[in-house]
Every structure is written in structure tokens, then in C-alpha cells.
Hints:
397 residues; alpha/beta; FAD/NAD(P)-binding domain; 7-stranded mixed sheet; 5-stranded parallel sheet; 10 helices; 27% helix; globular; binds flavin-adenine dinucleotide
Amino acid sequence: MQKHHQIIIIGGGNAGISVAAQLFRKNSKLDIAIFDPSDKHYYQPAWTLAGGGVFDIRKTERNEADVIPKKAIWIKESAKSFNPDTNEVVTEAASYSYDILVVCPGIQLNWGSIKGLNETLGHNSVCSNYSFKYAPYTFECIKNFKGGNAIFHNPHTPVKCGGAPHKIMYMAADYFRKHGVLEKSNIQYWSGGAKLFAVPKYEKTLLNVCKRANIKLNFMQRLDEIDGENKRAKFVGFGENNKDVETWVDFDMMHVTPPQSAPDFIKNSPLANAAGWVDVDKNTLQHVRYANVFSLGDASGLPTSKTGAAIRKQAPVVVENILALLAHQNLSGNYSGYTSCPLVTGYGKLVLAEFDYNNQPMETFPFDQSKERWSMYLLKKEVLPRMYWGQILTGKA
Ligand SMILES: Cc1cc2nc3c(=O)[nH]c(=O)nc-3n(C[C@H](O)[C@H](O)[C@H](O)COP(=O)(O)OP(=O)(O)OC[C@H]3O[C@@H](n4cnc5c(N)ncnc54)[C@H](O)[C@@H]3O)c2cc1C
């Protein structure tokens, strides 16, 4: 027999747990089921600091059972497909119906789309902070680097936390400087983007950080292959001026960010937009074709930078609009596109970028946030992790 829940949430990550916890704070009688096959929950923003050697990776992992709100029903299964016309979610084992569906299974990391990457990741000085397993190896690579080519890669696809592929480069540069190897280092950034950062106010500071470490910037480049054994990587240009130009680059260490996309089961579902993401209205976060479906977080098609900070502003909007829909009222929750990227620029230095859909700064503090600050570094390292586990996942913030 098909099981029914008033609200079904797909994904018990940052977004799913935030929404469930906030909904229960507003109405403890709701019937909410969270689908997630994972035993573990991760605080991914600290993986940059773990890769920089200043955060214990074990503190970024908790049991999923401990973060699921007590009143929620945890269905430890993967959603496989959706029939939104009949309000149905299908898993390997069963099918479930819902009144309201919230879709937030995160982003898909496509490690396999770079030839040779899976074989060499975690060896041959090839590292990535985009993995709980391998982030600590990044610091091994930084520590063991004695000069030569240090490559930092940013893919040609959307990614979660647009700053993460280069934040670790600034930390590495600072480490090399402190340990007397910067002079012997050739730090190179190879990116699938057209610029370093979307918001000019913060990009200006980052360009100065690159200048002081003599970092060479390469844009409109796609990483196609890594030959780990021979420590070289193949990039292919795709801009007007470098179209199809192949470059093999030798490296002594290389930090890779995997290409990313919407999860396949979302791409192949009626919920997807043309690019594969969940097709929601950018203000109400309600699906554009199915009124009882909402989405937020990395899997949503919201045209903003995919971060946990963005989810902090999206979750209350989803909650307000779900409660309005259940009460047959108009939706009044409205999301501005707010997102934030704490750009670590060195050990003890951070630029807190905060901006909206139009890349206009939306700053919290009464000072110029484009300046590198120790206080903002402390916010990221000491305050935000505690706030995540204690406030955000419990629906208090
Ligand atoms: C290296 C790195 C640095 C970052 N730095 C920052 C930062 O400084 N600041 C910041 O705000 N953000 C940062 N982020 C981004 C932030 O972690 C993500 O934006 C956030 O976790 C997204 O939340 P989410 O709920 O959409 O996805 P996730 O938190 O990834 O959760 C998705 C959940 O869905 C589950 N799931 C997947 N498929 C299915 C399925 N088929 N059925 C059911 N469940 C499924 C997964 O098991 C997972 O639990 C960083 C991320 C990384 C990797």
C-alpha cells in the first residue's frame, strides 16, 4: 500500500533539516517525512579550513540520526523519481504520496567526468576539499610542497560555494610564504569561469591577494584529464581567443574541484528546468508548474551562488510559503537572492562577501567587508560551525 505524508522532504542536508526544524517550530503537529539514505551529515563549509590544516575534519561529521528533528519520520531511502501529477515520490522499495513536496538533495559531484581523476585523487599530490575523505590530504600536499608548480582548478560548471576552489589557493600561498617556499613557487589558477569573482567589490581585493603571491590566472579553461603518475594535467580552452587550444601543465601539487550538476534523478524528472535543476520561482521558491512543490539549496534552479548561507535565507521563505499554502492563503514569503561567501584569503584573514541576485553587496556589518579581517576569519572558524549545529539545524536561526 502507498504511504502518505503531509510533507515529504527529499534530502536531509543543510536545506532539508533547516526546513523541517523550522516547520516544527511553527507547528509541532505537522506530519513530516525526510528521505535521505546517508548515515552521516556534514558541515561542508569547514572542509576548506580542514584542507588548510586548521580544522579537525572529524568535527564536520555527525550522525544523520542526531540532526533529524525528533518529530520527523526519517525514511532512509533514496528518491528515484517523481510523479508530480499524482503527488508521488518513488524509491527503490516503495512509493509515497504527499500534500507538499520539498526537493533539496544537493548538487551532484561528477568526479568521473575528468579522465584519470578518480584513479589519482588522494595520491600523486592531487587533492580536493570537495570530499570529506580527501580534504585532509590537501594539507598534506601543501605541507609537503617544496616549490614548483601548484595548480588550483575551478571547473566550467556551477559549483557549491563558488569561493572554495580559490580560497584554498590563498591559504596555500600564505602557508608557502610563512614557510619560505613562496619564492620558489609558481602558483597557477586554472578556471572554467571568465573572472575570479562575480562581485567587483570583492574581486578587487582578491586580485590584490593574487598579485601579492604572484598567482597566474587562466580563465575559460576546462580540465579534461589528469595523468597522476606523470604529474601533468590537460586543459582545453573554450573562450573566443583560446577555443580548443590544448595545454598540458606539469604540477608538483594540484587541487581539483569536481565538475558539478543537478542530480541525475532530478535532471530526468518532470521537476527539472532546461539545465536540470528544480524549476522554482526565484522569489517564492515554489515550483513553476506544480504549486505544492518547493525547492531550495544546491539542487534548486535559483540563480544565485549555491551556499549554506543562501539556505539560511531561503529556508524561512519556504516555511512561510508552505504554511500559507496549507492554510489556503496567498504566498507572501519572498527571497532576495542573498548569498554569502566567506573568502579566506590567508591564515587569520577573511573577506566576508555577501550579495544578492544582482551581485549587489548586502552586507551585515557596519564596516567595509571587502577588507581582509581577522574578526571575520574568527566568525568562520569559531562562530559559524557552532551556529550551524546549534542554531541552524534546530530551526532557531
Ligand atoms: C569545500 C566546500 C566549501 C564550502 N564552503 C561554504 C562556505 O564557506 N559557506 C557556505 O555557506 N557554504 C559553503 N559550502 C556549500 C554548502 O555546504 C552547501 O551549499 C550546502 O551544504 C547545500 O545544502 P543542501 O541541503 O542543498 O545539500 P547538502 O547539504 O549537500 O545535502 C544534500 C542531502 O541530500 C541527500 N540526498 C542526495 N540524493 C538523495 C536522494 N536521491 N534521495 C534522498 N536524499 C538524497 C544527501 O545524502 C545529503 O544528505 C561549501 C561546500 C564545500 C563542498
